[in-house]
Task: structure prediction
Amino acid sequence: MPSPTPQPTATRVGLVFGGCSGEHAVSILSARTVADALSTGANGQRYRAVLHYITRDGRWLTGEGATAALSGADPIPAGSEDPGARLPTTARHVDVWFPVLHGPNGEDGTVQGLFTLLDQPFVGTGVLGAAVGMDKQAMKTAFAAAGLPQVKHVCASADGLARPDELVGTVEQDLGYPCFVKPANLGSSVGISKAGDRRALLAGLRAAARLDDRLIVEAAVTARELECAVLGDGTLNASVVGEILYDAEWYDYTTKYSPGHSSLVIPASVPQAVHERVQRLAVQATQAIGAYGLSRVDFFYQEENRMLYVNEVNTMPGFTGQSMYPLLWQASGIPTEELVHRLIELARARHQRRNFTPAH
Result:
C-alpha cells in the first residue's frame, strides 16, 4: 500500500496590527481584511495567521489577547500572556511577517528595522522606503530630486513657531491662502487643517506641532483626487487608476472612514493619456523614495489644463473594506486573496535574495 502523500505545512504569517499611532483603529480594520484573505480559498491551505496585536502603549499581545482585539473585544482577557511584553516573543513561530500597521511606529521604518534585525521576511518595503514615505518633508525632497511634479509647499518645524511672524510671512509670500497645514509624519489626514487666513494658519501650525516636530504647508489646489496602486519588487506594476469623490470641503479623517461620506470611482473617468501618465508617475514616485512591495500613490489632477501633481506615497495603504488599494487591484483582475498571496511571495523572494551567498 503506497504511503500517503505528505501534506505541505502551512506558512505561518505573523499578522501585526494595532500600533502606537492615531491610525490604530484603522489598522485593526485592515487586519481583519487581511486575516479573511489568509483563510479564503487556496490561501486557507497555504497560510495560518499568527496574530500579533500592538496596544496603543506599545505592548505586544498574541493568542487570546490578539484574537480579542481583532474582533473588537477586550484585548487583555483574564489568563492572557504577559501583558507587559514590549517585543514579539513568538518570532520562532512565524515564517513571514505581515505588518498591517499605519502611521508612526509601524509604517515609518521602525517595525521594518525590527524584522530586518530578526532576519525574517516581511511584507512591504524596507527601512528606507518606509521612513522616507512616512516623512512628508523627506518624501517631497525625494520627489523634487526625481523631477516629479508636485504642488508648492513650505517645510517648517515646531521650533519655527518661536518666530511665528517669520514663518507665517514665508508661507504668505510663497504660497498664499488657502493652504493646508500638515504634520510631516502622520497619515489618514490626522492633524491636517485648512487655513484661509493668518489666524487659521497659526492655529493649524500650533495644532500640528503638538503632533509632530516636522511640519509642512502646501498650497491648496482645486483638483480631482486620483490614486494608483503599485505592486512588485524590481519590476513594479501599476493598477488601474481610481478617483475619490467626497461631500466635504476636503478629504479629512472623518470623510475617509465614515460610510456614506465618500465614494470611489474605479476606473477613474479620465483620458487614456492621463490614466497612463498616472501609472508611470506612480511607479516613478515609489522608486523615488526607495520603496518596493506595495504602495498607493495619490495625485491631484487639474482637469482644465490636464496638470498632474504627485501628492504622496503610502507604503502600507489601508486594507479596509472601503480602501482604495485592494479595490484598485480587484478592478485590475487581482482579487484580495490573490493580492495577499502575491505580497507574501514577494516578501519571501526578497528575503531569499538578501541572504543568498553565491558559490565560490
Summary: The chain has three domains: 11-124, 142-146+222-315, 152-219. The radius of gyration is 21 Å. The first helix runs from residue 24 to 38.
